[in-house]
Amino acid sequence: MIGIAVLGAGRIGRIHAANAAANRRCRLVAVADTVAAAAESLAGALGAEPATDPKAVIARTDVDALVIGTPTDTHVDLLLEAARRGKAVLCEKPVDLDIRKVDAAIAETSRLRARAMVAFNRRFDPSAAALRRAIDQGEIGEVRQVIITSRDPEPPPLSYVASSGGIFRDMTIHDFDMARWLLGEEPCEVFATAEALVDRAIGTAGDFDTLMIVMRTKSGRQCHINNCRQAIYGYDQRIEVFGARGMLLNDNLRPSTLRRYNGTETEGREPLLNFFLERYAEAYRLELDAFLAAVERGGPMPLSLEDGRRALRLADAALESAGSGRAVAV
Ligand SMILES: NC(=O)c1ccc[n+]([C@@H]2O[C@H](COP(=O)([O-])OP(=O)(O)OC[C@H]3O[C@@H](n4cnc5c(N)ncnc54)[C@H](O)[C@@H]3O)[C@@H](O)[C@H]2O)c1
Protein backbone atom coordinates (compact mmCIF):
# COMPACT_ATOMS: atom_id res chain seq x y z
CA MET A 1 0.00 0.00 0.00
CA ILE A 2 1.26 3.47 -0.93
CA GLY A 3 2.18 5.71 2.01
CA ILE A 4 1.00 9.21 1.15
CA ALA A 5 1.31 12.62 2.81
CA VAL A 6 -0.50 15.85 2.06
CA LEU A 7 1.41 19.14 2.26
CA GLY A 8 -0.83 22.10 3.01
CA ALA A 9 -4.02 21.81 5.06
CA GLY A 10 -5.93 24.65 3.42
CA ARG A 11 -8.89 24.56 1.01
CA ILE A 12 -7.44 22.09 -1.48
CA GLY A 13 -5.30 20.16 1.01
CA ARG A 14 -8.41 19.28 3.01
CA ILE A 15 -10.02 17.77 -0.11
CA HIS A 16 -6.96 15.74 -1.07
CA ALA A 17 -6.37 14.53 2.48
CA ALA A 18 -9.97 13.35 2.88
CA ASN A 19 -9.79 11.57 -0.49
CA ALA A 20 -6.48 9.96 0.44
CA ALA A 21 -7.88 8.75 3.76
CA ALA A 22 -10.79 7.11 1.91
CA ASN A 23 -8.75 5.59 -0.95
CA ARG A 24 -7.90 1.88 -0.73
CA ARG A 25 -4.69 2.19 -2.71
CA CYS A 26 -2.98 4.31 -0.04
CA ARG A 27 -2.56 5.05 3.63
CA LEU A 28 -2.60 8.71 4.68
CA VAL A 29 0.53 8.87 6.82
CA ALA A 30 0.86 12.58 7.57
CA VAL A 31 -0.50 16.05 6.95
CA ALA A 32 1.97 18.94 7.06
CA ASP A 33 1.15 22.60 7.41
CA THR A 34 3.38 25.38 8.70
CA VAL A 35 0.42 26.40 10.86
CA ALA A 36 0.41 23.70 13.54
CA ALA A 37 -3.31 24.06 14.36
CA ALA A 38 -4.25 23.49 10.70
CA ALA A 39 -2.11 20.34 10.46
CA GLU A 40 -3.37 19.03 13.80
CA SER A 41 -7.06 19.48 13.11
CA LEU A 42 -6.95 17.91 9.63
CA ALA A 43 -4.57 15.07 10.52
CA GLY A 44 -6.49 14.41 13.75
CA ALA A 45 -9.80 14.12 11.92
CA LEU A 46 -8.35 11.62 9.43
CA GLY A 47 -6.18 9.47 11.72
CA ALA A 48 -2.87 10.77 10.29
CA GLU A 49 0.16 12.35 11.95
CA PRO A 50 0.36 16.16 11.99
CA ALA A 51 3.61 17.94 11.12
CA THR A 52 4.81 21.51 10.65
CA ASP A 53 7.94 20.78 8.60
CA PRO A 54 7.00 19.59 5.09
CA LYS A 55 10.57 18.54 4.26
CA ALA A 56 10.75 16.25 7.29
CA VAL A 57 7.54 14.60 6.04
CA ILE A 58 8.99 14.19 2.54
CA ALA A 59 12.03 12.47 4.10
CA ARG A 60 9.97 9.89 6.01
CA THR A 61 10.67 6.34 4.85
CA ASP A 62 6.98 5.41 5.16
CA VAL A 63 5.99 8.18 2.72
CA ASP A 64 6.14 7.10 -0.94
CA ALA A 65 4.01 9.83 -2.50
CA LEU A 66 3.13 13.46 -1.79
CA VAL A 67 0.30 15.77 -2.64
CA ILE A 68 1.51 19.38 -2.77
CA GLY A 69 -1.39 21.62 -1.82
CA THR A 70 0.62 24.52 -0.41
CA PRO A 71 0.64 28.08 -1.82
CA THR A 72 1.93 28.27 -5.41
CA ASP A 73 5.25 29.94 -4.56
CA THR A 74 6.28 26.91 -2.46
CA HIS A 75 5.49 24.19 -5.07
CA VAL A 76 8.79 23.95 -6.94
CA ASP A 77 10.95 23.80 -3.80
CA LEU A 78 8.83 20.99 -2.31
CA LEU A 79 8.50 19.21 -5.66
CA LEU A 80 12.27 19.11 -6.14
CA GLU A 81 12.85 17.97 -2.56
CA ALA A 82 10.44 15.08 -3.16
CA ALA A 83 12.01 14.30 -6.55
CA ARG A 84 15.50 14.11 -5.04
CA ARG A 85 14.21 11.61 -2.51
CA GLY A 86 12.54 9.48 -5.20
CA LYS A 87 8.98 10.25 -4.09
CA ALA A 88 6.06 10.52 -6.53
CA VAL A 89 4.27 13.89 -6.53
CA LEU A 90 0.83 15.20 -7.34
CA CYS A 91 1.44 18.96 -7.53
CA GLU A 92 -1.36 21.50 -7.46
CA LYS A 93 -1.71 24.00 -10.29
CA PRO A 94 -0.03 26.19 -11.28
CA VAL A 95 3.37 24.50 -10.90
CA ASP A 96 4.76 28.03 -10.46
CA LEU A 97 3.90 31.52 -11.72
CA ASP A 98 7.29 31.93 -13.41
CA ILE A 99 7.71 29.77 -16.51
CA ARG A 100 11.52 29.84 -16.14
CA LYS A 101 11.17 28.15 -12.74
CA VAL A 102 8.82 25.58 -14.28
CA ASP A 103 11.33 24.93 -17.09
CA ALA A 104 14.10 24.41 -14.54
CA ALA A 105 11.88 22.09 -12.46
CA ILE A 106 11.04 20.01 -15.54
CA ALA A 107 14.73 19.73 -16.46
CA GLU A 108 15.68 18.66 -12.93
CA THR A 109 12.81 16.19 -12.47
CA SER A 110 13.54 14.55 -15.81
CA ARG A 111 17.25 14.31 -14.93
CA LEU A 112 16.21 12.58 -11.69
CA ARG A 113 13.61 10.48 -13.58
CA ALA A 114 11.12 11.68 -10.96
CA ARG A 115 7.43 10.87 -11.23
CA ALA A 116 5.30 14.01 -11.03
CA MET A 117 1.81 14.95 -12.12
CA VAL A 118 0.21 18.39 -12.28
CA ALA A 119 -3.29 18.55 -10.74
CA PHE A 120 -5.67 19.66 -13.48
CA ASN A 121 -8.68 18.08 -11.80
CA ARG A 122 -11.22 18.99 -14.49
CA ARG A 123 -9.89 16.30 -16.83
CA PHE A 124 -11.18 13.78 -14.28
CA ASP A 125 -14.69 15.22 -14.06
CA PRO A 126 -16.98 12.42 -15.30
CA SER A 127 -18.82 14.79 -17.69
CA ALA A 128 -15.56 16.16 -19.16
CA ALA A 129 -14.16 12.65 -19.48
CA ALA A 130 -17.35 11.51 -21.28
CA LEU A 131 -17.04 14.48 -23.63
CA ARG A 132 -13.42 13.66 -24.44
CA ARG A 133 -14.31 9.97 -24.99
CA ALA A 134 -17.04 11.01 -27.46
CA ILE A 135 -14.49 13.11 -29.40
CA ASP A 136 -11.99 10.23 -29.39
CA GLN A 137 -14.66 7.85 -30.68
CA GLY A 138 -15.32 10.19 -33.62
CA GLU A 139 -18.89 11.04 -32.63
CA ILE A 140 -18.67 14.63 -33.89
CA GLY A 141 -16.01 14.09 -36.55
CA GLU A 142 -13.16 16.57 -36.72
CA VAL A 143 -13.27 19.22 -33.98
CA ARG A 144 -13.76 22.76 -35.32
CA GLN A 145 -14.55 24.90 -32.27
CA VAL A 146 -14.29 24.59 -28.48
CA ILE A 147 -16.21 27.06 -26.30
CA ILE A 148 -15.48 27.12 -22.57
CA THR A 149 -17.47 29.15 -20.04
CA SER A 150 -16.08 29.32 -16.51
CA ARG A 151 -17.49 31.85 -14.06
CA ASP A 152 -17.03 31.89 -10.30
CA PRO A 153 -19.92 32.74 -7.95
CA GLU A 154 -17.90 35.34 -6.02
CA PRO A 155 -14.49 36.99 -6.37
CA PRO A 156 -11.79 35.88 -3.92
CA PRO A 157 -10.59 38.23 -1.16
CA LEU A 158 -8.20 40.98 -2.33
CA SER A 159 -5.43 39.39 -0.26
CA TYR A 160 -5.77 36.26 -2.45
CA VAL A 161 -5.82 38.32 -5.65
CA ALA A 162 -2.52 39.93 -4.64
CA SER A 163 -0.70 36.57 -4.32
CA SER A 164 -2.58 34.56 -6.96
CA GLY A 165 -0.45 35.57 -9.94
CA GLY A 166 -3.51 37.03 -11.64
CA ILE A 167 -6.67 35.55 -13.11
CA PHE A 168 -5.01 34.10 -16.23
CA ARG A 169 -2.47 32.02 -14.29
CA ASP A 170 -4.73 31.24 -11.33
CA MET A 171 -8.20 30.63 -12.78
CA THR A 172 -8.04 30.50 -16.59
CA ILE A 173 -5.16 28.03 -16.37
CA HIS A 174 -7.76 25.26 -15.87
CA ASP A 175 -9.53 26.37 -19.06
CA PHE A 176 -6.25 26.52 -21.02
CA ASP A 177 -5.65 22.92 -20.02
CA MET A 178 -9.19 21.89 -21.04
CA ALA A 179 -8.75 23.74 -24.34
CA ARG A 180 -5.52 21.87 -25.16
CA TRP A 181 -7.09 18.57 -24.14
CA LEU A 182 -10.26 19.01 -26.20
CA LEU A 183 -8.83 20.74 -29.29
CA GLY A 184 -6.45 17.86 -29.89
CA GLU A 185 -3.88 20.38 -31.17
CA GLU A 186 -1.76 22.99 -29.43
CA PRO A 187 -3.01 26.59 -29.71
CA CYS A 188 -0.49 28.67 -31.68
CA GLU A 189 -2.08 32.12 -31.30
CA VAL A 190 -3.85 33.79 -28.38
CA PHE A 191 -5.90 36.99 -28.26
CA ALA A 192 -7.36 38.19 -24.95
CA THR A 193 -9.33 41.14 -23.69
CA ALA A 194 -9.75 41.64 -19.95
CA GLU A 195 -11.27 44.17 -17.54
CA ALA A 196 -12.05 44.66 -13.85
CA LEU A 197 -15.83 45.01 -14.14
CA VAL A 198 -16.79 43.29 -10.87
CA ASP A 199 -14.53 45.14 -8.46
CA ARG A 200 -12.36 48.16 -9.33
CA ALA A 201 -10.06 47.25 -6.44
CA ILE A 202 -9.09 44.11 -8.38
CA GLY A 203 -8.06 46.40 -11.23
CA THR A 204 -6.15 48.65 -8.84
CA ALA A 205 -4.31 45.54 -7.64
CA GLY A 206 -3.20 45.02 -11.25
CA ASP A 207 -5.53 42.13 -12.05
CA PHE A 208 -8.75 41.54 -14.03
CA ASP A 209 -12.03 39.84 -13.13
CA THR A 210 -13.76 39.54 -16.51
CA LEU A 211 -12.13 38.26 -19.67
CA MET A 212 -12.56 36.72 -23.08
CA ILE A 213 -9.96 34.79 -25.04
CA VAL A 214 -9.83 33.57 -28.65
CA MET A 215 -7.18 31.03 -29.65
CA ARG A 216 -6.43 29.16 -32.84
CA THR A 217 -4.35 26.11 -33.66
CA LYS A 218 -2.03 25.64 -36.62
CA SER A 219 -4.68 23.80 -38.65
CA GLY A 220 -7.23 26.55 -37.88
CA ARG A 221 -9.27 25.01 -35.05
CA GLN A 222 -10.72 27.71 -32.82
CA CYS A 223 -11.31 28.06 -29.09
CA HIS A 224 -13.11 30.67 -27.07
CA ILE A 225 -12.79 30.94 -23.27
CA ASN A 226 -14.79 33.34 -21.13
CA ASN A 227 -14.24 33.89 -17.43
CA CYS A 228 -15.77 36.12 -14.79
CA ARG A 229 -14.99 36.19 -11.07
CA GLN A 230 -18.66 36.78 -10.25
CA ALA A 231 -21.84 35.16 -11.56
CA ILE A 232 -24.96 36.03 -9.59
CA TYR A 233 -26.53 32.63 -10.37
CA GLY A 234 -23.55 30.58 -9.11
CA TYR A 235 -20.58 28.56 -10.38
CA ASP A 236 -21.07 28.39 -14.15
CA GLN A 237 -19.10 25.58 -15.83
CA ARG A 238 -20.07 24.73 -19.40
CA ILE A 239 -18.22 23.33 -22.39
CA GLU A 240 -19.33 23.10 -26.01
CA VAL A 241 -17.36 21.23 -28.65
CA PHE A 242 -18.52 21.67 -32.22
CA GLY A 243 -17.33 19.35 -34.98
CA ALA A 244 -17.95 18.36 -38.59
CA ARG A 245 -20.66 15.84 -37.64
CA GLY A 246 -22.24 17.32 -34.55
CA MET A 247 -21.87 19.08 -31.22
CA LEU A 248 -21.16 17.95 -27.66
CA LEU A 249 -22.39 20.01 -24.75
CA ASN A 250 -21.54 19.75 -21.04
CA ASP A 251 -24.03 21.62 -18.90
CA ASN A 252 -23.93 22.72 -15.26
CA LEU A 253 -24.65 20.34 -12.41
CA ARG A 254 -27.34 20.84 -9.79
CA PRO A 255 -27.96 19.06 -6.48
CA SER A 256 -31.01 17.33 -8.00
CA THR A 257 -32.94 17.10 -11.28
CA LEU A 258 -36.07 18.75 -9.78
CA ARG A 259 -37.88 21.17 -12.11
CA ARG A 260 -40.66 23.49 -10.94
CA TYR A 261 -43.67 24.64 -12.97
CA ASN A 262 -46.03 27.27 -11.53
CA GLY A 263 -47.86 30.54 -12.30
CA THR A 264 -44.65 32.57 -12.78
CA GLU A 265 -42.09 30.13 -14.18
CA THR A 266 -41.60 26.89 -16.04
CA GLU A 267 -38.49 24.75 -15.94
CA GLY A 268 -37.56 26.35 -12.58
CA ARG A 269 -34.53 24.47 -11.29
CA GLU A 270 -32.38 24.41 -8.17
CA PRO A 271 -29.28 26.66 -7.99
CA LEU A 272 -26.03 25.35 -9.49
CA LEU A 273 -23.62 23.45 -7.27
CA ASN A 274 -22.01 26.29 -5.40
CA PHE A 275 -18.29 26.31 -6.18
CA PHE A 276 -15.32 24.15 -7.21
CA LEU A 277 -15.16 22.07 -4.03
CA GLU A 278 -18.75 20.89 -4.62
CA ARG A 279 -18.85 20.90 -8.44
CA TYR A 280 -15.61 18.99 -8.83
CA ALA A 281 -15.77 16.78 -5.70
CA GLU A 282 -15.86 13.62 -7.81
CA ALA A 283 -13.12 14.93 -10.12
CA TYR A 284 -10.74 15.45 -7.17
CA ARG A 285 -11.45 11.92 -5.96
CA LEU A 286 -10.85 10.39 -9.40
CA GLU A 287 -7.77 12.56 -9.96
CA LEU A 288 -6.10 11.23 -6.81
CA ASP A 289 -7.09 7.68 -7.70
CA ALA A 290 -5.58 8.05 -11.21
CA PHE A 291 -2.36 9.38 -9.64
CA LEU A 292 -2.20 6.46 -7.19
CA ALA A 293 -2.95 3.93 -9.94
CA ALA A 294 -0.03 5.36 -11.96
CA VAL A 295 2.26 5.18 -8.91
CA GLU A 296 1.25 1.53 -8.42
CA ARG A 297 1.78 0.41 -11.98
CA GLY A 298 4.77 2.60 -12.91
CA GLY A 299 5.00 4.21 -16.36
CA PRO A 300 3.69 7.61 -17.34
CA MET A 301 1.51 9.82 -15.19
CA PRO A 302 -1.95 10.82 -16.52
CA LEU A 303 -0.73 14.44 -16.70
CA SER A 304 2.85 15.69 -16.72
CA LEU A 305 4.60 18.83 -15.52
CA GLU A 306 4.90 19.67 -19.23
CA ASP A 307 1.08 19.94 -19.32
CA GLY A 308 1.41 22.45 -16.49
CA ARG A 309 4.07 24.37 -18.43
CA ARG A 310 2.01 24.54 -21.63
CA ALA A 311 -1.07 25.86 -19.84
CA LEU A 312 1.11 28.47 -18.10
CA ARG A 313 2.63 29.48 -21.45
CA LEU A 314 -0.90 30.14 -22.78
CA ALA A 315 -1.71 32.15 -19.63
CA ASP A 316 1.41 34.27 -20.12
CA ALA A 317 0.50 34.85 -23.78
CA ALA A 318 -3.07 35.85 -22.86
CA LEU A 319 -1.79 38.30 -20.24
CA GLU A 320 0.55 39.83 -22.81
CA SER A 321 -2.29 40.08 -25.34
CA ALA A 322 -4.63 41.72 -22.82
CA GLY A 323 -1.94 44.35 -22.23
CA SER A 324 -0.97 45.01 -25.84
CA GLY A 325 -4.36 44.54 -27.51
CA ARG A 326 -2.68 42.27 -30.08
CA ALA A 327 -2.77 38.54 -30.71
CA VAL A 328 0.31 36.75 -29.38
CA ALA A 329 1.98 33.82 -31.14
CA VAL A 330 2.81 30.86 -28.89
N1 LIG B 1 -7.08 22.35 -8.55
C1 LIG B 1 -7.92 23.17 -7.97
O1 LIG B 1 -9.11 23.17 -8.24
C2 LIG B 1 -7.41 24.13 -6.92
C3 LIG B 1 -8.33 24.78 -6.08
C4 LIG B 1 -7.84 25.64 -5.10
C5 LIG B 1 -6.48 25.83 -4.96
N2 LIG B 1 -5.62 25.21 -5.82
C6 LIG B 1 -4.16 25.41 -5.69
O2 LIG B 1 -3.75 24.81 -4.46
C7 LIG B 1 -2.75 25.60 -3.84
C8 LIG B 1 -3.24 25.97 -2.42
O3 LIG B 1 -4.41 26.73 -2.52
P1 LIG B 1 -5.47 26.81 -1.31
O4 LIG B 1 -6.62 27.56 -1.84
O5 LIG B 1 -5.69 25.47 -0.70
O6 LIG B 1 -4.65 27.73 -0.29
P2 LIG B 1 -4.90 27.89 1.28
O7 LIG B 1 -4.27 29.20 1.64
O8 LIG B 1 -6.32 27.62 1.63
O9 LIG B 1 -4.04 26.71 1.92
C9 LIG B 1 -2.63 26.64 1.86
C10 LIG B 1 -2.13 26.02 3.18
O10 LIG B 1 -0.73 25.76 3.04
C11 LIG B 1 -0.09 26.12 4.27
N3 LIG B 1 1.33 26.38 3.98
C12 LIG B 1 1.90 27.53 3.53
N4 LIG B 1 3.22 27.31 3.29
C13 LIG B 1 3.45 26.01 3.59
C14 LIG B 1 4.61 25.19 3.53
N5 LIG B 1 5.79 25.65 3.09
N6 LIG B 1 4.50 23.90 3.93
C15 LIG B 1 3.32 23.40 4.37
N7 LIG B 1 2.18 24.13 4.43
C16 LIG B 1 2.26 25.41 4.04
C17 LIG B 1 -0.88 27.32 4.78
O11 LIG B 1 -0.71 27.48 6.17
C18 LIG B 1 -2.30 26.92 4.40
O12 LIG B 1 -2.95 26.19 5.43
C19 LIG B 1 -2.51 26.80 -4.75
O13 LIG B 1 -1.40 26.52 -5.58
C20 LIG B 1 -3.77 26.88 -5.58
O14 LIG B 1 -3.55 27.43 -6.89
C21 LIG B 1 -6.07 24.35 -6.76
Characterize the biggest β-sheet. 7 strands, mixed
* CATH class category of the largest domain: Alpha Beta
Radius of gyration: 20 Å
CATH superfamily of the largest domain: Dihydrodipicolinate Reductase, domain 2
- Write down the overall geometry: globular
Helix share bin: 40-55%
Whole-number tally of structural domains: 2
> What is the percentage of strand-forming residues?
15-25%
Structural class: alpha/beta
How are the strands ordered across the major sheet? 12-11-7-10-9-8-15
Q: What is the terminal-to-terminal distance?
A: 42 Å
Oligomer: single chain
Q: What bound compounds does this protein have? A: nicotinamide-adenine-dinucleotide
CATH level-3 fold name of the largest domain:
Dihydrodipicolinate Reductase, domain 2
- Tell how many strands the DSSP assignment holds: 15
- What is the typical, i.e. mean, pLDDT? 97
CATH-derived architecture of the largest domain: 2-Layer Sandwich
- Which stretches are poorly predicted, pLDDT < 50 over at least 5 residues? none
Number of alpha- plus pi-helical segments: 13
Order of helices and strands: EHEHEHEHEHEHEHHHEHEEEEEEHHHE
